[in-house]
Design brief:
345 residues, 13 strands, alpha/beta, three-stranded mixed β-sheet
Length: 345
Amino acid sequence: MHHEVTRPIIIGHRGASGYRPEHTLASYKLAIDLGADYVEPDLVSTRDGVLVARHENEVSGTTDVALHPEFASRQATKCIDGRAVTGWFTEDFTLAELKTLRTKERLPSVRPANTRYDGRFEVPTLDEVLDLVRHESRARGEVIGIYPETKHPSYFDSIGLSLEEPLVAALGRHHLDRPNARVVIQSFETSNLKDLRARTNVRLVQLVYGASSPYDLRSTGDLRTYRDLVTPQGLAEIATYADGVGPHHALVIPRDSTGHLLEPTDMVDDAHARGLFVHAFTMRDENKFLPADFRVGTDPKALGDAIGEAQRFFDAGVDGIFTDFPDTGVFAREDWLSRAMTRVS
């Protein structure tokens, strides 16, 4: 299959989370320093309706909340997207209370070097992330993009803390609610993207896991799975409300039972045929996460050939990748583009 040579974008997944605790200003700043085109904050709400950057609303894995005796009574078990989750939840804290917590590395056994930053950073608000991105863009004379994800939108709607309105309001405050802004909003649910389509002019992306189904569909008895969403028919529907699709990497290039990469699927071509761009997630440098073809040595924590993996995805035609190691993505892209140019000429 022949692909025109496009310049894939590099999205700093939760910042540069391979090097700093995820979703901290330090992580986003480093991602920008390492050449990321976009940084990705996942958004959840505080009790007082402020959007903050956390991968989950349950924060015991990414903050020191369990060490705060004054919050011991806030521990709870909740049903989040049909699953029982126990811990401490952002929606039970005001922003002022959440700001007394400090962040920590989510994968300490895989990324022990990052634990030296435990206790050093706050949970940032969306406004603080937008301020950082604007400041860094000005300092560099180039616009850094922002790629927010709404987490558990149906759940937050159900408790009266809708994510969409404050997100659009924040973009408006920062003069980013316009079609040419370097902003992409993503969601694993479908109905909140349709809602956002009516509220904002920025680009929208339907995220797609390799298994299971969008919670908003499941909760209303709609039997469609994520795999149904990436059929030609499913992609045609996505194109009615979104600009791109964000597939799990296995939907682009599956792995066999031994962990080796197989041939790419038709998904990228099918998406492009319907006018959708494709940003695949998530690339990580450690052997533990890499396909067997690109592991180096046997230590799961050691860094493998993530450059080679990324280039395999560029060969498959993706328009961008989410990576925990933005410098790896940037190097892989520049090396791939230089070789592509040589082939073309």
